[in-house]
Specification:
The protein is of the alpha+beta class. The chain contains 9 helices and 9 strands. It has 2 domains: about 150 residues, no CATH class; about 170 residues, no CATH class.
Length: about 350
């Protein structure tokens, strides 16, 4: 019994120490064509202990002498170097306190720029903010965005846990290509369309009567819906035009009711493709924030919009294919039933 009690205590101690070592601090990297952007998230209490002075918990941006002091401190603890030992330049930008995080954290952004001729995708990162003063303090290093590596914002990929003074980790993202980012955005589009139940139901209500009338009409409705959502993504994802949150869903609910009534008593006969285009616009506006949150720009944003739209269209095409197969199977069953009944008599 005594041995069992000791084992339980040991297990509790290990569990507590593991939770205590969980990383509240993070370094999130975003790989760009010629630089690496880093977001540093440091627990305010631990940072104050490391600096040996209290820090204000105001959510306002950090400016003035405090910004200079923190930039000097963090700049001395971020040390990216090339394989041959050349140091990168580190520029600390904006800083603020995130009051929505528990515990509260200081969020700082830095731009890491490689020396001339060095690849921004291969380097050794030295980082020991807080850990130099508080050994054992853990910081999670993760890749938040890497288009060529197929990592998109919103799903950071953990690389290492830094918990030692002068801690270093080698990063090599050389093996990649633009197709990885395109494929990741396409998968995101498929997942978003599959989870957008209201819009799938809207498309389904439009598709069922169209499939019963003509496969060609079904194809036109699917193409019109995809065109509408692609146009809305092109306008909404870069932030050029967006509807307030909740408005597309509310409009889609009304459109769903009209489509259901149209299935019973035609309201816009002959104009189904235009109606489907409008419904696609609503879905594109609702999904534009997902693409905008990827924090891409330039050609990568354009490629992400195209790939995301293609993924949505693939998921919707699968739905329309299932509807067509279901209607065809029902029609075949009815024909066989009509032939079978007279023979039975």
């Amino acid at each position: 019994m005594n041995v069992l009690f000791r084992l339980v205590l040991a297990w509790l101690a290990l569990a507590w120490s593991g939770s205590a070592a969980a990383a509240d601090a993070e370094v999130l990297l975003e790989f760009r064509d010629d630089a690496v952007l880093a977001e540093l998230r440091l627990p305010l209490r631990d940072l104050a202990t490391a600096l040996g002075r209290p820090l204000p918990a105001s959510p306002l941006p950090v400016r003035g002498r405090l910004h200079t002091e923190l930039a000097r401190y963090l700049g001395a603890r971020i040390d990216p170097v090339t394989d041959d030992g050349r140091h990168w330049s580190v520029e600390l930008a904006d800083m603020r306190v995130a009051v929505d995080a528990v515990p509260r954290v200081l969020v700082a952004h830095a731009v890491l720029t490689p020396p001339a001729g060095a690849s921004p995708r291969r380097f050794v990162l030295g980082y020991d903010a807080i850990a130099r003063e508080l050994p054992g303090h853990a910081t999670r290093l993760a890749i938040r965005s890497d288009w060529d590596g197929g990592v998109l914002a919103g799903h950071p990929a953990t690389v290492a846990l830094l918990d030692a003074p002068r801690g270093r980790v080698a990063l090599d993202r050389a093996d990649g290509g633009g197709w990885r980012g395109w494929l990741a955005a396409c998968r995101l589009g498929v997942r978003q369309a599959a989870e957008a139940g209201r819009y799938l139901l809207l498309l389904l209500v439009l598709a069922l009567p169209a499939a019963a009338r003509s496969p060609a009409l079904l194809a036109r409705i699917g193409a019109a819906f995809a065109l509408g959502q692609a146009l809305a993504l092109l306008a909404g994802a870069p932030g050029w035009f967006r509807l307030p949150a909740g408005v597309p869903d509310a409009l889609a609910a009304g459109a769903l009711m009209l489509a259901a009534v149209h299935g019973l008593r035609p309201l816009f006969a002959g104009r189904e493709t235009w109606y489907a285009t409008g419904c696609g616009l609503l879905h594109g506006m609702a999904a534009a924030g997902t693409v905008g949150a990827l924090d891409l720009d330039g050609w990568q944003l354009a490629a992400a919009i195209v790939a995301f739209a293609a993924g949505c269209a693939l998921a919707q095409a699968a739905l329309l294919g299932a509807v067509l197969a279901l209607v065809a199977a029902a029609a075949l069953f009815m024909r066989r039933r009509a032939v079978w009944h007279p023979a039975k008599r």
